[in-house]
Each structure stands twice: as structure tokens, then as C-alpha cells.
């Protein structure tokens, strides 16, 4: 059986490599520029061997044992004073290049493409339609005749065959500077064709050769300044101030939050300044073309997707946590609403980008000491396989946009409920990722998912469905009420004592991961002559029972609540509990 599993894993790995080469990803250097933002499990599944059956099972212990964790990622500081000298130099250089790019309007989208070329039947723009010429009689010009062009000092020719030119009035004001600059030197010889009327009324055409000499205006008298110079001196071109460019509501330069934004792009490109600048330009231009600012105001009305992607709580370092539950798309009705045609897939993409943009602006802080990244938790339980091509296409397109335009927004990427076949993909694709990217990945099999989450997220922030005690609309407890974690050894009992010194209402809740234990509760008064009150008789809880227990007891005299958990199994258990005391007046 073990050899058969290894063979299938190898086949899956081989197909992954083949698919990667088909897409031009056979070079590790190309893959190393990828950013693990919003890593989609559906895009991951795309490379898996379609021959591998998703119904074949492997024991949970084998799956969890096969998962190898990378060295944990440690997020860098965004304070300029904490940067190394080469990093400071790169940041300063990037700021200068952005200022130059702003002055050149390099952050604007390219102009629209030129209109299509005209058809062959239509005349080309630079071609002038031929005009039908009529034969005319020509008249030889008498070489002794005077130049028919009149000037201010020379009278026109008296020859009746030559038409008198119309006198030209000279402007009184001297030419302006811009008019003088616009004078283009004419050709030396120009042939002028003029219509001439004979004495008998017949029209003839004669060609007259003219010699045009450019006229240079005389310099002004000594001590005087020409009006052209005066205009040049008095009318100065206003200095153009480039408009600021914003991304996620933060200007690229000139704000204390700008450094945090620029450092994201620099780190995504290993502090290669020109590559980071190109990435910023592309991101800003894409945001304008996609219409991000207008998208934030749109009402896309997709409440069905609130269970697919949602924010819940924060990790132990105050990063907001985003959960991706693609197994929800096993619901055929939901799948059809999101991906049945191109219009719906485009709407899903816009919703996904809108969801991320709102989360960035509402939950992240780009100040130097703020939290500017998040934790992504991806649940691979029941995730759709390669057969859902519409989902693959949509998530692949979304992933490409997120990688290019949202760098360094993931502090940790946690995959939970990882199936055995995913391990083959992880082993094959691992060499294609940088150490920085791999250090952000965390994998956990089904039996280790909750405990893995607790390494990074406190149980009071983990949703109930993932092993924690965080619930929506809980009137008794909130995320500010800390949860205590206890490990119960095999074949042993653990007791919890909750003291009550005065009349009050005592509330508690607890859960044991995987249950398979017995639980009981009783109130023990402090007075020796009082009786013990049984609150909860011993009950055996299994894995299929409710995930947690919440109880309360109204205390009328000093004493304590004693909770007993009996672990008769041969495996250790994780116990979570918390309690709260309320005044009887408040509870009423």
C-alpha cells in the first residue's frame, strides 16, 4: 500500500512539473518573483494529476507526519531607522525615481489604440484626390516686362496684360516673439501661377518665378527694448506641480505612511529599485484601468459569498485574519451563482478585489509602527477538484492580479485540513518559491488544524468551527475574555475550580478538541453544613456532539464550581475553557 501511494504521488508530481512547463514556469527564477498573497487552493489543484482519486483515503497520522514546516517567517520593521544601509539607499533612490515619474506623468494609462486603418477603397489620409485638369492656353512672358509684384517702394507694371496686385497693409505693431520664432525659411525659388485677362476678355495663365528673401527685422534703437522681448520677460510659463498618486489611500511620496507602501514593493523585488518602480507603475495604472475607487462604492450584493471569504479576529501579533473556505463551492446553487457564465465570473472577481480593498483600508495601518499585513487561513476541506474549470479560471485570474498588485500583504499563510495529495504538490513546487515565500507557509492535516491555528491565533479569536471559542453575537463572552488552554494526559482526570465569594451569576464555557471524554460539574459551598449541588451529571461527549458547552449557575452563598473532565482515552486531549462572574442585578 505504501509503495502504491508513493507511485501515485510521484505521478502527480510529474504532472505538476509538466503543467508548469507548459505555462512557461519551468524557470525557478520566474517563479521566485511570485508573492503568496491570497494563495488560491483551486489554482494549486490545477496542477495536480487528474488521475488521482480524491476518494482514496490515507490515515490522518500519515498525512500530519508527512507535512514539513519551513523556517518561520519573521516580519521586518517598517521604521526607516531599523533598515540596513543598502535598504535605506534603495528606498531613497526609489523616492527620487517616483518624483521623476510623477513629473513625466508615467503613472497614467497609455493612450487608447489608434483607429483601424481605412479600407483599400478609401483614399489614404496623406493622399490628395486627383483633380481633373483642363487644357489651358499659355502666354509667353515678355522678358523685358517688369516684375509684376508690387512693393511699397516700386510701382506696379504698366503692362495691361499684368494684373495689378492688391496692396498689403503692414501692421503698425512689431511682430511678437512667438511669431518671429514661428517663421520658417521659404524655398529660394517659387513658381506662382496667375490668371490674366486679355484685352478681348480671354483668360490665360502665366507662370511667374519669384525669388523670396526672408526679412530680418531691424534691431531696435539703442536704449530701447523691443516689445517681443518685453512679452518674453513678463509672461513666464507657470511651474507645473505634478498631481499626487495614491494607492490604498496613501500617497506614493510625501507622507509618513508612504515608506511602508514603498517598502512592500521593494521587498517583493529583493530591493531592486528599477524592478520595484516598474511594479509600482503597473499597479497604479491597473488600479486606474480597473476603477478601484469606483469599485469601493459599488453594491455587488453577493451575501452568499460571506461564508466563502471572511475576516474574523486577529492573531497574537494583532494581524487581522482572513479565512478562505472554498469547500463551500460544493454547493451547486452557490457555484452556479458565482461561476455559471462570464458575467458572473467577472462579478466574482470584482467582489473579491473589492473585499480585499475594503479589508486593507479598514483593518490595516500603514504608519511605520502599524500593522500593514494580514494572516491568511485557507481551509482545504472538501475543496473542489480540477473538474470545476470555471472556478479554476476565476481564481487563477484573481491570483495573478493579487500577485502583481498587492505585494507583501501576507504575514502568514496557514493551510488547514490539508489532504494527502496536496503534499505531492508541495514537495514538487517548493523549489520554485523563494525562502522568504516558503517561510510564510504553514501546513496542517485535519487532526492538527486547531492546534496549529492556536500557535498563531489565540483560541478566543478562532471561530468555533475551527476549534476555538469565538462566536458571532455572543452576549456573554467576547475576544477580550481570554481562554485557558490545558493538556489532559491520557487516562487521567482534570478538575477546574471557579471560585464564587458572593452571590452572583457564574458563567463558563469549555470544549475538548475531539471530545471522547466525560464531563461533569457541581457547586461546592464553603460552609461545612451546606450540601453540594450537582450542576451537570457526568456525560460522555464524542466527536459528533456539539463543539462546546456553555453553562451558568446562580450562586447564593460563598463556594466554588468544580468542573471535572475525565480522559479515559489513550491520547492526550486539548481543553479550552473560560468563565465570567456577573452580579445578580446585572443578570436580572
TrEMBL record:
Q: Which Pfam families match?
A: CRAL_TRIO (PF00650), CRAL_TRIO_N (PF03765), GOLD_PATL1_C (PF25099)
Its predominant location is cytoplasm
User: What UniProt keywords are attached to this protein's entry?
Assistant: Cell cycle, Cell division, Cytoplasm, Lipid-binding, Membrane, Transport
Instruction: Tell me which Gene3D superfamilies the record gives.
Output: CRAL-TRIO lipid binding domain, GOLD domain, N-terminal domain of phosphatidylinositol transfer protein sec14p
Which ranges carry the CRAL-TRIO domain? Answer: 298-474
| Assigned protein family | Belongs to the patellin family.
Give the compositionally biased regions (Basic and acidic residues). Answer: 19-37, 85-94
Q: Where in the cell is it found?
A: Cytoplasm; Membrane
* PROSITE patterns cross-referenced by the UniProt entry: CRAL_TRIO, GOLD
Q: Tell me which species this is from.
A: Platanthera guangdongensis
Q: Where is the composition biased (Pro residues)?
A: 108-118
| Key word Cell cycle present | yes
Task: Output compositional bias ranges, type Low complexity.
Answer: 55-66
Q: What is this protein called?
A: Patellin-5
Record domain GOLD: where = 480-581
Cited PANTHER family: CELLULAR RETINALDEHYDE-BINDING_TRIPLE FUNCTION DOMAIN-CONTAINING PROTEIN, PATELLIN-1
